[in-house]
Write a structure and sequence with these properties.
By secondary structure, this protein is an alpha/beta fold. It contains 11 helices and 9 strands. The chain has helices at 4-28, 46-62, 76-83, 97-106, 142-151, 165-177, 189-197, 208-217, 264-279, 281-289, 299-320; strands at 35-39, 65-69, 91-96, 118-134, 157-161, 182-186, 203-207, 220-225, 251-259. Strands 1, 2, 3, 4, 5, 6, 7, 8 and 9 form a 9-stranded mixed β-sheet that branches.
């Protein structure tokens, strides 16, 4: 007589082992279908530009990558969708300080933890911010802007993508200078730039990744670079500190994340391909053209960086009294 319980136990172990083999086989064949890269802002903005450039260079080794723009709620809609996705390597987040620091601080019920909900894979770039102004604005420098704002309180406006880093930078600038300037939230950078070129918005903050061409062509005026030193691509634009304003510095960092629980083998494959792409002369050259840096961080260091940014930015937002609009 065959022991029924022993037989059932043997079958269960066989099925479990078979399931593990299936999962291992799926990882070995990864990727076997298109990978979706979720971006938290509309097409045309700095994060979208960097995401599409990254997807373009990864497609050679990983196959088709679909950039999926999911704007809204300061980037938290995209973060929530990525955090809830199946951790199988086929849904990734192109994350930034908006999705992983500013958004969760603005929207307390974002639905995910910026640190625990994701597995950091690799930082892609760090891009400097520039304070920009319309060419018809009644100032050409930061000191002239502050003098005009003091003489005409409430007249000037800054356009910012709502809940994005430029929003925080605008509030930081107001805090540091006491300038009475109206902050006008936009859904994304592309419409903001259109309105600034048309003279409907006086100023704001944007990255060199989307602004260099406009600044070099003279469509928009560069007022200050938000770094400790001037950048080679805009040698005539002073730093914010040189312009007399301390404590307003920032860069737009971005990187690739997977939902927590993604198999380590898949994470390692993705990281290896991203690092190889970043080191390719063509990709590196395009990043240099945007004045973008590529920080040399391990995946663990990137995770620590995100955690520190989330804490730092939450404190700034609280001090500024910023709330979701």
């Amino acid at each position: 007589m065959i022991d029924r319980r022993a037989l059932l136990g043997t079958m269960a172990l066989t099925l479990a082992a078979g399931g593990g083999s299936v999962r291992a086989l799926a990882q070995d064949k990864y990727p076997s279908k298109p990978i979706r890269l979720i971006v938290s802002f509309p097409p045309g903005g700095p994060l979208d530009v960097m995401a599409r450039l990254t997807a373009q260079y990864l497609s050679g080794s990983l196959g088709q990558m679909i950039v999926d723009n999911k704007p809204g709620a300061g980037g938290t809609l995209a973060g929530r969708e990525a955090a809830r996705a199946e951790p199988d390597g086929y849904t990734l987040l192109f994350g930034s300080s908006a999705t992983l620091a500013i958004g969760p601080a603005l929207y307390g019920n974002s639905g995910y933890d910026p640190v625990k909900s994701f597995t950091p894979i690799a930082m892609v770039s760090s891009v400097p911010y520039v304070m920009i102004g319309a060419t018809n604005a009644p100032y050409k420098t930061v000191p002239e802007l502050l003098a005009y704002a003091k003489a005409h309180p409430g007249e000037l406006n800054f356009g910012v993508p709502n809940g994005a880093p430029p929003h925080m930078l605008a509030e930081m600038f107001k805090m540091q200078t006491g300038a009475d300037i109206q902050v006008v939230p936009y859904k994304g950078a592309s419409t903001l730039i259109t309105d600034m070129i048309a003279g409907r918005i006086h100023g704001g903050f944007e990255t060199t990744s989307v602004m260099l061409a406009h600044l070099q062509e003279g469509n928009i005026r560069g007022l200050a670079v938000l770094r400790a030193a001037r950048i080679a691509e805009l040698p005539d634009v002073p730093t914010m500190a040189e312009s007399g304003v301390k404590g307003v510095e920032g860069s737009s960092w971005s990187g690739v994340f997977a939902p927590a629980g993604t198999p380590p083998a898949i994470v390692a494959r993705l990281r290896g391909d991203i690092i190889a792409a970043l080191r390719s002369p063509d990709f590196a050259g395009k990043l240099k053209m945007m004045a973008a840096d590529v920080p040399n961080m391990t995946a663990a260091e990137f995770g620590d960086f995100v955690a520190s940014e989330a804490t730092r930015i939450a404190a700034i937002m609280k001090a500024a009294g910023l709330k979701a609009q």
